[in-house]
Amino acid sequence: MKKIHIPFIALVLALATASCIGNDEPTNSITQVVKMYNRAIGDNIDGCLFSTATTQIAIDMNAATISLSTNARVNDRQRPSFKVELLKMTTQSAGLYTFSASNVKCDNGSTVTNLQGTFDMNAGVMYLQYLVDGETTVYSTSLLAYAYTTLSSSKDGGTPYSSENSMMIFRLDSKDSTKATLEVRNLQLSPSDIGVDAATYDTVSVKVTDDGYLLTADRLKSNTYGSTYDMTDFNGVVTNQGRVLNATFKCKGYDVKYHGSMFKEN
Fold first, then answer.
1. What contacts 109, CB < 8 A, 6 or more positions away?
2. Measured distance CA(204)–CA(94) in Å, rounded
3. N or C: which end of the chain has fewer CB within 10 A?
4. What is the pLDDT of residue 104?
5. DSSP label at 46?
6. Phi then psi for 224, rounded to 5 degrees?
């Protein structure tokens, strides 16, 4: 099956097709609003504090710069917001960029230091990490999307089948961070399995942890019309501050192991 990746809020597609009005030359720049998932950890926080942020991102591929404005809850009273402009993006590999900033002032007087960001144009995902007032670290991701994957499936102890085409995307409920929907792209369990290009599932239980998330479900019924790819015994562990997923589940009589990374692993 063809490998299909979903950019966050169609940002990559927009970048690929953006052009100036009245100008035939592509601008390769776009301004987009995306939702980020934040996890704040610090000595003043009991465990991990989760929040979401509406984040505006502007990317100019010609100049290789990125500007963004975002926010995160760092305690029960404060949600500092900040803006950085025209940060230079450094190419790490084809489509993979990093950027950084320090000493950024927030609207409430707080200071952001050690801002580190990663953007993968191929998979359409972004990761941010920064320190607020020298005491609270914020880890922020655009969706929980894992495009660089290995899926291993076996049935009745038979020869395992391996694939690198699948992609998993978890979207947390905007009103209840303990729930998420799951979307799977290019799910195929054996060479003879016809597979499914896209299937969606409700509802995965979510627990926020110091290193990521725990994702569980006893049974996941596909919402996709005609799909027979229901799952049971789904257990997923997201680590590396949201960037790596390891999951196991059962589907159509197969025992499935899934390893996914938000960014291409070396």
1. none
2. 33
3. C
4. 96
5. S
6. -80, 130
Of 71, 63, 61, the C-alpha closest to 110 is 71
Q: Are 122 and 11 in contact (CB under 8 A)?
A: no
Instruction: Annotate 157-209 with three-state secondary structure.
Output: CCCCEEECCCEEEEEECCCCCCEEEEEEEEECCCCCCCCEEEEEEEEEEEEEC
| CA gyration radius, the chain | 19
Q: Whose structure tokens read 């404060």? A: 78
DSSP string, 63-78: TTEEEEEEE---SSS-
User: 194-227 burial, b if ≥16 CB within 10 A, otherwise e?
Assistant: eebebbebeebebebeeebbebebeebebebeeb
Q: Do 180 and 203 contact (CB within 8 A), yes or no?
A: yes
| Segments of the chain scoring below 70 in pLDDT | 1-27, 266
The sign of the CA dihedral 14, 97, 57, 48 is positive
| Residue 17 pLDDT | 40
The strand pair at 144-146 and 148-154 is best described as unpaired
pLDDT of residue 5: 45
Query: Rounded to 5 degrees, what are φ and ψ at 238?
Result: -100, 125
Cα–Cα distance, 61 to 110 (Å, whole number): 30
Q: pLDDT at position 266, please?
A: 67
> In the structure encoding, which two tokens stand for residue 79, read together?
């949600």
pLDDT of residue 175: 83
CA distance 95 to 97: 7
DSSP string across 13-36: HHHHH-B-TT-SSB--EEEEEEEE
- pTM of the model as a whole: 0.88
